[in-house]
Structures are given as C-alpha cells and as structure tokens.
Amino acid sequence: MVPTAMNGGRRRFLTRALGASAALVLGFSGAEASKGKQRQIVPSKTQVQSRSRPIKADKTALVHFDTAPFPYHGMMPGSNTPFLNINEAGRKGHSTGSGRVYWEDQTYNDDRVLLHIPKGFDIRRPALMLVFFHGHGATLERDVLARQKVPAQISASNANVVLVAPQLAVDARDSSAGKFWQPGAFGRFIGEAGQQLARLHGDRKSLRTFASMPIVIVAYSGGYVAAATAIERGGLKKRVRGVVLLDSLYGDLDKFAHWIEADPTAFFVSVYLGSTRNQNAQLEGILAAHDVDVSPEINTRLATGGVAVVPGGDGRHRDLVTHAWVDDPIIDILQRLPEYRR
To answer: Which of 34, 147, 208, 312 is most buried (most C-beta within 10 Å)?
Structure first.
C-alpha cells in the first residue's frame, strides 16, 4: 500500500501527488564542452517514436533486476579479497571494515529496484532519469518510499522525471556498491532500467527515449560509494548530467573531483551537515587548487552547470531527504531544472 500518513499541508499535498492510484507491483522479473565554454544541460534530442499522451496516474513498482547491485559474488575493489569473505557452514557473509558481519541471505540478496513514473509524465517531452542511492539502514519500501518519500517528491515537483532507486545493502551500516564496482556495470544497470521503465510506462515505443535520457544521480549518506563508482567506472560518459550529494561526502573525494573537472558541462551539488563538513571543505580545497569555482549557493538554473557546496539547514541527518535547506529538497532540486517540466 502507498503510505498516506504525513504531517502538515505540504506533506498532505505530497501524499495526494503520489496518491492511492499508484501501483506498487512486487516481483516483476527483469530480463563536451571545453572548460571555457558556458556550462549547460541540453535536453535529450532523441527522436521520440511514441505518440502516447501523458500518463493518467502515478506508476510505481518494485522490480527484480538482473543487473542490480546485489547479489554480488566478485572481489573487493583493488584487491584479491572476495566480497563474501565469511563462510560458516556454507552460509556466506561479508565482514565490513568496522568488523560487523552481514549475511548474504539477509543483507545482500535483494535484487529489486524501485521505479516511479509520475502522473502527467510525457514521453514526448524532454525528460530526466533520477537515480537515487539510499544510505545506511534502509529498505526501499520502508525508507525510500514511505519515510523519505522520494517518489512523492518527484510527483509533486511537476518535473518530467522518472525514478530508479536500487536496493543496496538491506537495513545495514554498509556502503558497498556490489556489482557497480565492476567496469561498465552501472551502464548495464541503466540499460535494464530503460527496458523496465518502458514496460511500466506501457508503450514499447517509449524504450528508445528511456534508453537515452540524461541522468541525475542523487545520493544520500552512505549512498556516496555507489555514486562515486557509477561516475568513475559506469561507462556512461556524459550521459550523467548532474550529481547531488545529501550529507553524503564521506569519502571518494578524488573520484568526485575528477568527474567535476572532466565534465564542466554538468552540475555538482554537495549539501552537508556536521558529519561531512570537513570532507566538503577538503573537496573545496581540491577544486580551488585546480581553478574550479565553487559557489556557497545552489544555482537557480542548474542546467547552466556549476559546483555548489552548501550547508543543509538545521535538520537532522536522518531527516535530510525531507527536511534540509528547504522542506522536500528533491522537489527544490528538480524545480531548478525547468527544461524538464511536464
């Protein structure tokens, strides 16, 4: 069931935006501009073959993906150590750097992805794919859907945007990226996402558009590892047009800095609270040393690019996806991309 218990007028509006008409489907089977030029996102010029009209109701589904981050039976990055480095009587698990042990059958065996297409989405208009990486201690149903209300924020934003949110480690204090550590794996995941979104949309001619639309990555908290890995070795080159970190810059500063410098046409926003303040200051120093301007405010027109490192407001880390510099920050980010309105 789509959650409806929300507090305040704005939240009641968000609930209505997601609405009881959304279909939560369980168990589907998954089969360059130079630095001196103006930064700008260009809406996809892909020829739209579909003649479908805007969809009449939200479509939300939990879908099994072959290319999901987990299960993962490969190695830890940069080592010859298997990810599943614990074996007790045939039961396999992973021991984290902090010494915690999580078992594959409980933590690393959920291959589902939360997909959402908002009411009014128009396949004939420029559109974006928002990929959301959740943080520690999260599940798709309880947290991304019900608590953080990511689909509801997309529905309420009036943006022509679809959501793709993979399950990472289930309800665990672990930032592992799983299959995304493998070269090209994130690109293959996005390819499957295009197929599954076209199926959910209901018009097979929409596949070409879903398969090529620009991508914005939003990572919260421990989702930074998946985000950094996706931009470093995902194989999508300049299809990723923006990265937004919500109190998520705990590490991989070099990977984010390299991506920022390599593609000055894209935008980068890092929002911090106390837990990532120092890392964000370090990133600003790295970028300043390479003559990359950093703004203390988010650009009102993100399509023109730029880098922003900004404080997250007076909220708690746990609530940042719904209460940051503004309530419902994903809505605010998407409204700064008017090129992609419904």
So the answer is: 312
Strands (E), the chain: 24-28, 59-64, 86-88, 91-95, 101-103, 112-117, 128-133, 161-166, 215-220, 240-246, 267-272, 306-311
Other C-beta atoms within 10 Å of 248: how many? 31
Question: How far is 245 from 192, CA to CA, in rounded Å?
Answer: 24
Using CA atoms, how far residue 329 sits from 240, 245, 295, 322, in Å, is 20, 11, 18, 6
Query: Rounded to a whole number, what is the largest CA-CA distance in the chain?
Result: 60
Cα 331 from Cα 273, distance rounded (Å) = 19
Q: How many CA atoms, within 13 angstroms, populate the side-chain half-sphere of residue 337? A: 32
Question: Cα separation of 26 and 326, whole Å?
Answer: 32
Contacts of 49 (CB under 8 A, 6+ apart): 205, 206, 208, 209
pLDDT tens-digit readout, 192-242? 999 999 999 999 899 999 999 999 999 999 999 999 999 999 999 899 999
Count Cβ neighbours within 10 Å for each residue of 149-169 and write b for 16 or more, e otherwise. Answer: bbbbbbbbbbbbbbbbbbbbb
Long-range contacts of 17-20 (CB under 8 A, 24+ apart): 17/58, 17/118, 17/119, 17/152, 17/155, 17/156, 18/58, 18/60, 18/149, 18/151, 18/152, 18/155, 19/57, 19/58, 19/119, 19/155
- The domains located in the chain, with CATH, are 9-71+110-340 (3.40.50.1820), 73-107 (no CATH)
How is residue 201 written in tokens?
A: 């949309």
Say whether pTM exceeds 0.85. yes
Tokens of 333: 């980010």
Tens digits of per-residue pLDDT, 179-199? 999 999 999 999 999 999 999
Whether 55 contacts 121, CB under 8 Å: yes
| Helix ranges restricted to H, 96-184 | 104-107, 150-156
